[in-house]
UniProtKB/TrEMBL annotation:
Alphabetized InterPro entries for the sequence: GatZ_KbaZ_carbometab, PTS_IIC_man
An annotated GO cellular component: plasma membrane
Keywords of this entry: Cell membrane, Membrane, Phosphotransferase system, Sugar transport, Transmembrane, Transmembrane helix, Transport
PROSITE patterns from the UniProt entry: PTS_EIIC_TYPE_4
Organism: Enterococcus cecorum DSM 20682 = ATCC 43198
Name used for this protein in its record: PTS system mannose/fructose/sorbose-specific IIC component
Length: 264
């Protein structure tokens, strides 16, 4: 269990560093990080199930300005590990994803308050000409604090077993658990609706309706619909490319005039 706890903790640290030090590789997304947890714990399928649901829930979660949303990355890691280690279904794991995400939100706020003091220390080091020290404040101490913010909760949750997580879940009132279960069913649709609101237009609505009715009446799986969509996209692209390469009537007119001159 120690090795698994360390391994999953490292996955949490890697997911945290994704958007803060390594660029934006999207390893912090619930779908991907839950799959990594599933691979580490030997159950990729369940990790994928938990991650897919949490990914839909987090589609509408955006950090705007000083507003700090729930940390769905931390929630996804612990929820996926909980589902795999306790051999429960994904629905049960979702009941702790949101509370853990809110806990991660609070920890994130506290860590940012502490990091603000490091910024002042870095400014002071720059004024004193200690540039290496100022650089370490930003590049070394900042990532270390963020790494501990993820590694410690994940390690404790995995190392002490699912009993700690189960105890935490049992402390949650039944009315809150029922509410979170209901929210887990509504939030995916809400997140998907927010995503579609930025993509839909008069030209693309017909394709949404096409996919909906193909799924409803043809009884195709998601994979079948995806293959059908790719084929349709290739056909439309080929037709559009063919039309763009066809000379217009205006471009053909001068050529016709030249042909008439040659006949004379």
């Amino acid at each position: 269990m120690l090795v698994k706890a360390i391994l999953v903790g490292i996955i949490g640290v890697f997911a945290m560093l994704d958007s803060r030090l390594l660029g934006r590789l999207n390893f912090e997304r619930p779908l991907i990080v839950s799959c990594l947890v599933g691979i580490a714990l030997g159950d990729l399928q369940k990790g994928l199930m938990v991650g897919a649901t949490l990914e839909l829930m987090s589609l509408g979660i955006v950090s705007i300005g000083a507003a700090v949303p729930a940390d769905m990355t931390l929630g996804s890691i612990i929820a996926a590990a909980f589902a795999i280690l306790s051999n429960t279904n994904a629905q049960t794991a979702l009941t702790i994803a949101i509370p853990i995400g809110i806990l991660g939100q609070l920890l994130g706020i506290v860590s940012r308050m502490f990091l603000a003091t490091l910024t002042h220390s870095a400014d002071k080091a720059v004024e004193e000409g200690k540039f290496v020290k100022a650089q370490n404040y930003h590049i070394v101490w900042g990532p270390i604090i963020y790494s501990l913010l993820y590694f410690v909760p994940v390690f404790l949750a995995i190392y002490f077993g699912t009993g700690v997580v189960n105890s935490f879940v049992k402390m949650i009132p039944e009315w809150l658990t029922n509410g979170l279960s209901l929210a887990s069913k509504i939030l995916p649709a809400y997140g998907f609706a927010l995503l579609m609101s930025t993509m839909l237009s008069k030209k693309t609505t017909v394709f949404l309706m096409l996919g909906f009715f193909v799924t409803a009446y043809a009884k195709l799986s998601v994979t079948g619909v995806a293959i059908f969509a790719v084929i349709l996209a290739v056909i439309l692209y080929s037709l559009d490319k063919g039309n763009s390469n066809t000379p217009s009537a205006a471009n053909q007119a001068p050529m016709d005039d030249l042909d008439d001159l040659e006949e004379l």
